[in-house]
């Protein structure tokens, strides 16, 4: 990629488009972004898009339909590097908040009865990694624009985005916050990958895990701790599943009593 | 050492007189805790403040900072951005913590970033009364006679002021008229009485006798597995510990430009990625191993190398770990006095 600008595609599957919007909102840096990369496809931002080989594809959203799946497989096939952006692409997103309960068909029926859908092939919401190889992740709901730009810069320079392998608590201590968990507020910062600069706790709001589970998240220990602090099983699971999606469901799966 | 007296009611005046020595920082309430914060109003300075969330190390090695910038012309040191500061309200344990950081960063291997900030940060200590989590008496760090510029000891309506450096002496000279050279026999007696009383105020029940030997004997004990099961690997204990000093270095490259910064941030052996090496092998992949490392480092290995523990008894791990893993619970469990980790 040394001489030629890397060819980049930015795509969305099932999600709120918030991550693509975050990229568009990089007002001050958007020129630098378009200057550093050859943005060949970005349907949300421009109309002349070329769908061929890409050096890097950034993909937002969960795989929730057959159409999503074939689009993802196509992107994967023609991209050297595939980066999942946002909570839906990396974990499954809030739409997979009931993933722990399995029985997708029953759940659909419970909500929609016998309504006929225009999209007949909807399926359990999955992160990209459930279907294709993902080379890097920029998590968050939505992504942080600074992190996105730093990631692009690293990729342009032949590196990969930083993967945050430590929890939000580390940044929370950098910011010298008083720990909310110690005060009995159910913060799941210890289970959540850092990178957001602990922005919620900086504003006195507990972390709800929007960046998804950190590597080695000790769900069993925090679950036990919150039970001791008199939170109900349902409360704890709901909190963890708000953004944790399929990734969190896998971790909760093995806990005695967490599953309904 | 020069020792003088300052009337407590003249503290504000004195701090005002030394304002040319740098920005004033002191412990100020943050929620239910304290944090060293920049002082804009001298009325916020409270010599009786309790332990701060982060220790003094944040002044000498900020949690995150840029070491240098680079561009096509070369490297540009960021040391010029270090400011002069006066930090008021340091407790003895924390100053002892700094003395340990001095050993790590300013002796065999000298770290210019640490040394510059250390030089530019004046430390004014104050005597303190232990709360239920302090155990500096057990780690021999309840008093301190170096590492500060001035130290204020309790003396009723006055402070007894110990001058610990030439910068300290300069500060005293800048407010000369407020200090009293005459320390009476009665003052000395009062000081002794107060020190004796302070000794009786340590409430925490902890015994670190023979800790290095106990670690040796219990290094394969299954309690470490229990501790590992409980640990959230959140790193908070290491972040708040005054003597933890590990860091990571990363590059931030500006987008589309030939420039960037080389940045440094606190890291910790309690975190997953710390012992990950090239090729993907993690030689301390289990939390139990990492906990073992942290506690042996604090209470055994450091003694072997430097002749004293790298725990200064500040109590921060006790007030910080969400799942109650700390020097107290670990030491008690290893001694078999009480089983915290079932
Ligand atoms: S407030 Fe939350 S994120 Fe911050 S240290 Fe406590 S548990 Fe961790
Ligand atoms: S603190 Fe938690 S919920 Fe808030 S932005 Fe960070 S990861 Fe998301
Ligand atoms: S180990 Fe705990 S008590 Fe000892 S210095 Fe570190 S934080 Fe303080
Ligand atoms: S011992 Fe406690 S504070 Fe330290 S990493 Fe483990 S859970 Fe966090």
Tell me what you see in this structure.
The complex is a heterodimer of chains A (260) and B (342). Chain A has 10 helices and 5 strands. Chain A has a 5-stranded parallel sheet, sandwiched between helices. The relative contact order of chain A is 0.14. Chain A is 37% helix and 11% strand. Chain A has 260 residues and is α/β, with parallel strands linked by helices. Chain B is of the alpha+beta class and 342 residues long. Chain B folds into 2 domains: 3-63 and 77-199, no CATH class; 211-334, no CATH class. Helices cover 33% and strands 21% of the residues of chain B. Chain B contains 12 helices and 12 strands. In chain B, the strands form 2 sheets. Chain B has an 8-stranded mixed sheet with strand order 3-2-6-7-8-9-1-10. In chain B, a hairpin with a 6-residue loop joins strand 11 (247-253) and strand 12. In chain B, helix 8 packs across helix 10 (287-306). Bound molecules: iron/sulfur cluster (4 copies). The site of one iron/sulfur cluster has 13 residues of chain B, from helix 11. One iron/sulfur cluster binds next to helix 9 of chain B.
What descriptive keywords fit this protein?
heterodimer, A: 260 residues, alpha/beta, Rossmann fold, 2 domains, five-stranded parallel β-sheet, globular, B: 342 residues, alpha+beta, eight-stranded mixed β-sheet, 12 strands, 33% helix, 21% strand, binds iron/sulfur cluster
